[in-house]
Amino acid sequence: MTKKFFYSAALACLLFCACESLEEDVEVPVTPQEDVVNETSLIPGQMIIELSDELVEQLEADLAQGNFVQTKSGAVNSVFQGIGATKVERLYPDAGEWEPRHREAGLHKWYRITYDPSLPQTKAVRSIDEIPGVVYSEPVRRVKSTATFNDPKLPEQWHYYNNGTLTAKHKAGCDINVVPVWERYTGGTSNVIVSVEDGGIDLEHEDLAAVCMKGGANGSKNFVTGSYQISAHSHGTHVAGTIGAINNNGKGVSGIAGGLDGKGGVTLMSCQVFQHNPDDPKHDLSGGFHEAMVWAADHGAVISQNSWSNVYDSEEDAKRGSAGSMSSAIDYFIKYAGTDANGYQTGPMKGGVVIFAAGNEAWSIGWPAAYEPVIAVGSVAPDYTRAYYSNYGSWIDLAAPGGSAYYEKGEVLSTSPDNSYTWAQGTSMACPHVSGVAALLVSYYGGAGFTNEMLTTRLLGGANRKALSSATNIGPLLDAMGAFSYGSSAPPEAPSSHSVNVHSNFLDFSWKVTSDPDDFKAYGFIILASKDEAYLRNLDLRNIPSDIARKSVETGSAKVGSLIEGTISGLDFETDYYTAVAAYDYSNNFSALSPVVRVHTGPNLAPVIVTETPGPVQVKSHETLNIEFDIYDPDGHGINVFFTPGSNAAVNTLLPSGKYRVTISGKDADAGTYYAVYTVTDEFGLSSSFTLRYQIMENHPPQAVSNPENLIFTSMAQKKALNMENYVSDPDGEQLTYTFHMNPVGLVHLNQVENTLNLTTLDYGLARVSITGTDIKGEKATISFNVLIRDPESDPDVYPTQVKDYLSISDGEEKAISITISNSAGTVLYAGSVTCDAFDPARIDMSNWAPGRYGVVVVSGSKTFKTTVVKV
Amino acid sequence: MKKTFAIFSVALACFTLRAQDAASVAMPFSVVPRNVSTLAKGGVTSAEAAAVRLLGDAGLDVNASWFSWAPQGVSSNNINVDAYAKLSQRFSLDAQFALDMSPNAVIFTDDGSKKGTFAPKDMLIKLGAAYRITPELSAGVDLKFMNSTLAAKNSYSAVGADIMAAYSFGGAKLAAGVTSLGTSVKASDGTTFALPTAATVAGKYNLSFAQKHSLEAAAQVDYFFKGGVRAGVGAEYGFNDLVFARVGYSLGLKSPVPTYLSVGLGAKFSGICINAAYLVGSAAIANTLAIGAGYTF
Questions:
Q1: Average pLDDT of the residues in A324-335
Q2: Peptide bond into A744 cis (omega under 30)
Q3: Which of these, A435, A670, A870, B184, could form a disulfide with B150 (CB 3.0-4.6 Å)?
Q4: Which residues of chain B make contact with A857, given a CB cutoff of 8 A?
Q5: Contact: B148, A829; criterion CB under 8 Å
Q6: d(Cα A64, Cα A62) in Å, to the nearest integer?
């Protein structure tokens, strides 16, 4: 499916952008598509793809872990490596609070891939298509319009230039193709007056004021009130903006005939026939339609823009309708516009053109648009389909973008009262596109002798008849460039010379842009290469055989005489080729060939794999070793990089810098010797390989080196720092992960800073602290020690008080104490002095003592402590 | 220095030997004198046995006493009530109840942590009878029930008997017999410990002179079957049968009975007597104070 799309996209590119005049020649491409795709209109190294739900879920998980090109999918990794992918990002970034709705709309499935820009995009497309789960792919087209004018909202005006990237539903080429006209011909001139029979134009709007006629006896007029007071109306202002919003003024939107230099283009006359009704906001006041059109003809307008229609109760009712009395006004405008009372031409065009919106009832008829003398305009959505509301039928003369609210950013963006800008849909929005292009034509071709019939011929004759399917049934698609070049018969001048730079099997052409007698300059060029000189010289450029390598290159904004370049790739190696360049115009007129130049292609060199660490290398079980590789094709061919890790320890990563990195993690494999192998194959099957020998060393578990002495504290908030490395360490020199445990908790606060365990006393009591060192393999060693927090003023410890065998006696830190034990009769049974401490108490063996009460007297320093214990 | 160390080592060895013997005797509280005047006279208890008293003049003797016992040792409060009644010239009965109570103490477990409190106590109940075989010869038997409640689930009991014979001639009285002959006590680990059974010989002599002065001397020797000898001597001076001064000495050699020096005072009026005794000497028994009251006729 994606391949199918790409072929279609490539074909569309040829049809709408480059080779409108090639006709049959480009419809039968047999050679690989990359030979015929004009990649200069594409951004190198970028691709937009749509993924399946499963692949999206997997890729999101990988990206969340920072694995932007090293995913869990082997197929994805292989392709990404093969095209030199350096970045994978969402086309629509996470939208925060709007994210759920974006996901519901499927926007999260679209990704932009950045890859090696030297890789032919056709190859990249084919590679991407091989990934299971890629349901759609397309190259990223250059956006010329943003470079054309500085109006900030122009990039969203897909109806002027649609490169298919505004949203997923926008299809490239579904526009009015006006940008080449701005580049080559005109942006509109002020002597051309377009009357807008509609709601009043906002005459103070920042993007319109300079091109609107003020209200007055020779200017705009309000036919609802019969005054010269124009009342701004959203519909009329929107329509006016599409025709003449000022271009290149750094504000808002662009207009089709809004000039080139920020000062404005054609002049707009507001013939107000609708007015906001404050008493019934849903129903405008209206009137003066007949008078308005006649007024416009009598006051200089040569194009009558009418985005309105008669109202009928039903389609059947409408089928019985007609233009009625309005036909008299229409006929008057067509006949007398641009002339004086004596019938002499005074304007840029003799006679007028009346353009009507087809209507929005989705009916097969609409009035007055169906009145034969007028140009009726239907509406298309951003994807070449008929807008859901548009009236249809053979009576419609042209289709133009009217947009659809069912598409995100799918409506037409234009001016709105109070210096605002809004999206709107309808044949009302399609109609001013035709009026705007008509105004451009009059601006360029207008003058003495130019008639409304000549205008209509160009407007209709230059329309794109291949863009819309017959089922659309709203006429051919408006094509501004087609209208301007319609009827061109003189081919552009042939390039007088060209130069070819050869590297491997690439031919880099350069030549100068040539002029065109009736189109200023060549619309594009075809660069050609053939093994047979005679075959090339006798070539029919309208029917180029498949065995001729060629590529089309659009002239774009390049001026006559400036250098332009193009590349042919995929040729045979070490072979003589004969090269030439031919120019063509938008009407498919070809120049002669440039002088033929013979070149000899170079050899194919094997891919190169270079590293500063060729190995063999040793890695301890806890170590991670990174080794970087430069992998490239000296010829600049695309390469596929395959990596055989040898064990789970080795992982290959493509870095943003374009280098490859092998990461060997000792923890991920058993001890042993392994071999990681890079195999790199260029697109012509030539391979190189590199074997890295690496050894994972045997792991030794951590060891308890020594036990810390038991700790005695005498107050709260006392601190002690222990270097845990002194007690548990790793024979391999590994930095261990230390954990600690205390029982009971709460007596000491334990805080680890790197390898130091900091103890701070919190409460009196005895706790046991254990420290465990764990290595990367999970092997452990543990040591334990006691911590006593004891008030030095407290009584000596005599325990247990219910003795079964030994009685323990101590008094905190090490000291000599005197002990006397007597029985219930008062007989002294034990008396002595011993040196002891809390962790090495005096132990009195009472195992052979009879059950009974015993008095214990402990003398420690100046303290005398008495207590009773029992032997049980 | 070496000489001092040698002397200390020998003394410690002797002490250890003694301690081992004395420590293995169960229910040692049963050898504590309960009569204040007897305590003041060096604890010559056998010289005051029922069989001896039956050869005397007293018809009824009732006493109650309180001891602050061994304040530098087991430090208990001992209370005692005893009665002797000569029912005829040939037969007497006696009874005694004693309760020794240690103060509340914190229970420390094997690892030194606290676990509540406890107040151990010992109890002695004795019932006896004496029979005068001839005007000069009598014999008596006292049956004893002893109990030590040491902890919530640690209570030990034993029964025993004191068997005595007495002979009177002139102003002297002699007594001999066996005390604390009875059952053994089994510790929690199964080891059994015998009562402080001893063979005892005692005698006393009363002398009156100048009508207002009296003098009594008493002595006693006990030989404990588990090892150890205890000897006690005491004397009492009486003035006008109204006030009394007493002094005594108890010597314990490997004995469950400690060595001490005793002194005491007493007063008697119309058969009612008040007595006090005070012990000095041994580290544990020092400062023991006993106070008692009784009625005798």
A1: 94
A2: yes
A3: A870
A4: 72-73, 283-284
A5: no
A6: 5
Q: Which residues of B233-269 are buried (b: 16+ CB within 10 A; e: fewer)?
A: bbbbebeeeeebebbbbbbbebbbbbbbbbebbbebe
- Whether residue A95 has pLDDT greater than 80: no
Q: Which among A486, A382, A514, A377 has a CA at the least distance from the CA of A435?
A: A377
Distance in angstroms (rounded) separating the CA atoms of residues B144 and A225: 134
Measured distance CA(B162)–CA(B178) in Å, rounded: 6
Judged by CB atoms within 8 Å, which residues 71-90 of B form the interface with A? 72-76
Compute CA distances A283 → A275, A286, B74, whole Å.
Answer: 9, 9, 111
pLDDT of A8 above 50: no
Q: Count CB neighbours of A540 within 10 A.
A: 9
CATH number of the domain encompassing residue B221? 2.40.160.60
Give dist(CA A76, CA A70) in Å, integer.
8
A 10 A CB-CB count for A353 gives: 28
What are the tokens at B265? Answer: 């005072």
Tokens, residue A42: 């594409």
Q: Which residues contact B211 (CB under 8 A, 6 or more apart)?
A: none
Residue A665 to residues A458, A549, A625, A644, A737, Cα–Cα distance (Å): 70, 49, 7, 15, 17
The per-residue pLDDT for range A506-560, each reduced to its tens digit, is: 999 999 999 998 888 999 999 999 999 999 999 999 889 989 999 999 888 888 9
What pLDDT digit, counting tens, does each position of A263-311 carry? 999 999 999 999 999 898 888 899 999 999 999 999 999 999 999 999 9
Range of the domain at B202: 2-296
pLDDT digits (tens, 9 = 90+) for A368-409: 999 999 999 999 999 999 999 999 999 999 999 999 999 999
Residue A570 to residue A683: CA distance in whole angstroms: 9
- Residue length of chain B: 297
Q: What is the DSSP letter of A612?
A: S
> Which pairing describes strands A802-803 and A780-789: parallel, antiparallel, or unpaired?
unpaired
Residue A627 · residue A664 · CB < 8 Å: yes
Exactly one of A198, A635, A732, A811 is catalytic; name it. Answer: A198
Exposure of A387 in the CB half-sphere (CA atoms within 13 A): 34
CB atoms within 10 A of CB B149: 18
Nearest C-alpha in A relative to B68: A826
- pLDDT, mean over chain A: 89
A positions 420-439 inside 8 Å of B (CB): none
The distance of A58 to chain B (nearest Cα, Å) reads 56
Give exposure, A713-733, as e/b (b: 16+ Cβ within 10 Å).
Answer: bbeeeeeeebebbebbbbebe
A37 neighbors A13 (Cβ within 8 angstroms): yes
> Which residues in chain B come in under a pLDDT of 70?
1-21
B260 vs A: CB within 8 A: yes
Angle between helices A452-461 and A427-445 (to 10 degrees): 120
Residue B267 in tokens = 């007063």
Longest CA–CA separation in chain B, Å: 67
Q: Which amino acid is at A323?
A: A
Using a CB-CB cut-off of 8 Å, the residues of chain A touching B39 are none
Alpha-carbon distance of A188 to B218, in angstroms, equals 148
3-state secondary structure of A162: coil
* Amino acid, res. B149: T
CA distance A391 to A369: 10
Give the whole-angstrom CA distance, residue B80 versus residue A156: 110
The radius of gyration of chain A from alpha carbons, rounded to an integer in Å, stands at 43
pLDDT tens, A109-148?
A: 888 888 887 776 666 776 777 777 887 777 775 544 334 7
Q: How many domains does chain B have?
A: 1
For residues A37 and A122, the answer to whether their CB atoms sit within 8 Å is yes
Among A127, A254, A307, A428, the active-site one is: A428
